[in-house]
Design brief:
With about 210 residues, the protein is α/β, with parallel strands linked by helices. It has seven helices and ten strands. It has an eight-stranded parallel barrel with strand order 1-2-3-4-5-6-7-8, surrounded by four helices. Strands 9-10 form a two-stranded antiparallel ribbon. Helix 6 packs parallel to helix 7.
């Protein structure tokens, strides 16, 4: 079944809702964003996440030292890199890496083969911040690429109304949502529950 990551969580209620609804990953943003957390806040929130749900820290062009320090203090399970990090930089990180790629053309997808990571996140082009912009990219671009040996997470503009189609088109191992479960810029517990249910159901429908 498709795995679901709810990203940009900033309060305990939203985390507990996501966990109870069946989220597989919880994302904490440490890069510049309206959802950015301090180490202290993230550490406190991390205590609300049970061990079977994996904690992901999102970074953009951050130093290796800072990534490691935050990972240790917060107790992250994965590091998600949303910047211009090189394959060599990813290899230096001592924990599993989710590398994000902003997909504007097929050439962006061709970069994936250069990386050796736990997951590869396909996202829409950047807006003011890297990720969380609520825009989709052309999913049809993935059709010409053989991702069978890669663990692909689909992101960018996903919400409960298009997630089934997205899963059918791309066949990702996981999906990632942030703005798609918000109302007026804040996480909406009802949208979180609805999205997770729709993603899990959409995966079942897509694989019948």
């Amino acid at each position: 079944m498709v795995q679901v990551k709810i990203c940009g969580l900033t309060n305990k209620e939203a985390i507990e809702t996501a966990v109870e609804a069946g989220a597989d990953f919880i994302g904490f943003v440490f890069a510049r964003s309206k959802r950015q957390l301090t180490i202290k806040a993230a550490s406190e929130l991390a205590d609300s996440v049970p061990s079977h749900v994996k904690k992901v820290g999102v970074f953009v062009n951050e130093s290796l030292k800072t990534i490691q320090e935050i990972s240790d203090k917060v107790g992250l399970d994965y590091v998600q890199l949303h910047g211009d990090e090189s394959p060599a930089f990813c290899r230096e990180i001592e924990m599993p890496v989710i590398k994000a790629f902003q997909v504007t053309s097929r050439a962006d997808l061709e970069q994936i083969v250069l990386y050796d990571c736990a997951y590869y996140l396909l996202d829409s082009p950047a807006g003011k911040y890297r990720g969380g912009n609520g825009e989709t990219f052309d999913w049809a671009m993935t059709k010409d690429h053989d991702f069978l040996d890669k663990k692909i997470i689909l992101a960018g503009g996903l919400h409960s109304d298009n997630i089934a189609e997205a899963i059918k088109e791309v066949s990702p191992i996981g999906v990632d949502v942030s703005s798609g479960v918000e109302t007026e810029g804040k996480k909406d517990v009802n949208k979180i529950k609805t999205f997770i249910q729709a993603a899990k159901k959409g995966d079942e429908n897509g694989n019948l």
